[in-house]
Amino acid sequence: MLQLSSTQVTPVIAQGGVIAYPTEAVYGLGCDPDNDQAIEKLLAVKQRPWQKGLILVASSFEQLLPYVDVAQLTQAQLDFAHSKWPGPFTFVMPVKSHVSNKLRGEFDSIAVRVSAHPIVRELCDSLNKPLVSTSANLAGQDPVLTSRQILTDFADKIDALVLGDLGQQAQPSTIIDARSGLVLRNGQ
Question: Where would one find the signal peptide in this protein?
Fold first, then answer.
């Protein structure tokens, strides 16, 4: 497994690779959201059913516009999400119809976050698009908190580890339904 900086890993992602990278609270697994084969590989590594869907992280809301159907949201709903970003808040928003089922699962929505973590932001800026994000762990197990554990648990399963430190969050992000305002998972 390659160990790279956030600026060096772009070609790995562009070629369909799956990476591990530090986020606000835990290590994440990620790939190109427009590459179904990469998403399938990520789901296989994590042993996660496609039906559950995945999260997209971005450095700006503009990067999420190709995926989110903003026409189904009110200005107040968008303003609320923007008031929490960048930061540890994931919003479930209506998804555009062309977005792969492998990414959105069996839902008519997609979970999105504008991250405040500098490495996540660098990754998304270097790709000029969001990154698929899911916690680096096998389904049902605790998320990975150290690069050493990534190297042990995912050595021959992923293509690269992005070097860097986790953020200061103690818990994964809070998840909020953008349409209803309902908190689906408390984080922080």
Answer: none
Q: Which of left, alpha, beta for 154 (phi over 0: left; psi -120 to 50: alpha)? A: alpha
Both tokens assigned to 72 = 């189904």
Of 113, 120, 125, the C-alpha closest to 87 is 113
Tell me the per-residue pLDDT of 131-177, one tens digit each, with 9 for 90 and over: 999 999 877 888 888 999 999 999 899 999 999 999 988 878 899 99
Whether the model pTM is above 0.90: yes
Distance CA(73)–CA(180), nearest Å, equals 10
What DSSP character marks residue 27? E
CB neighbourhood size of 166 (10 A): 18
Is the peptide bond preceding residue 118 cis, with omega within 30 degrees of 0?
no
E strand spans, the chain = 2-4, 19-22, 27-30, 55-58, 89-94, 109-114, 131-135, 160-162, 174-177, 183-185
Total domain count, the chain? 1
CA 114/CA 88 separation, integer angstroms: 8
Distance, CA of 19 to CA of 78 (rounded, Å): 30
The CATH number of the domain where 136 resides is what?
3.90.870.10
State the DSSP code for 147.
H
pLDDT at 188: 60
